[in-house]
Amino acid sequence: MTSDAMTGEAGVAVARDYYDSSDAIEFYSTIWGGEDIHVGIYDDTRDIREASATTVDTMARLLSSVTGASERGASETGSNLSQAHVLDIGSGYGGGARRLVSKHGAGHVTCLNIAEEENARNRKLTGEAGLLDRIDVVDGSFDALPFDDGAFDVVWSQDAILHAPDRGAVLDEVARVLKPGGRFIFTDPMQADGLSDPSALQPIYDRIHLQNLASFGFYREGLKARGFQEVEVQDRSRQLRNHYARVAEELDSRRGELSASDEFVDRMIAGLGHWVRGADEGRLTWGIMLFRRT
Fold this sequence. Notes:
single chain, about 290 residues, alpha/beta, seven-stranded mixed sheet, 10 helices, disordered N terminus
């Protein structure tokens, strides 16, 4: 572990303090699209907000399309979004939750997030959208979920689990709170399976204060060991590169709109560049993953 890497409560505190900082809040709310803090899909747009919404729509359609579960001897729990209680772990500003409810008809979404300032913005935006009766926001960490066993039909997460010091603990908690037959759908920036030189990603590890990133293989193996069945895994690694490049471009062109110092902006652009280069070199991956709890 590098001297900058952190684990346990220290790592959680670093993530919380970063996302609650005024510079980070301004950056994510102004540049990243305002509603979401996740990777977008840029097949038909260059707009960050639209690309982020496309990711939510793609995940929701995949989740709703899983109606043939009985053919595989599985429960239909979670396939009908209108009847589903969804838990969004690492929910950020809640844009995904609001879109799940308002566009895709999810019955109820509980947002779980560790950053108090993000949660306050989530509650504000959700109230302005008139959705407080269908979305609630809970302060907490996804490696110790404050919910009963089998409480949810679906667990949803977008680009959040990478920040967990113990990702295995997150998977344990997801398995615990899902009903039998429930779905776990998520995205995460990851390192490539079989990465021959992990040190090549050290600038990214240092920036997020962790030893490493997960991988497709890590999630496949870890979820299988916890009684999950793979439903569909979509490798969309190119979108990771597209997203970080667009955010860096937008940040540079709009730096005059921010109160943050040029030093902060330059540091963010340099950090985003590490992600772009890692993706270009085939060291980073990203995708949509859907699993069913047996």
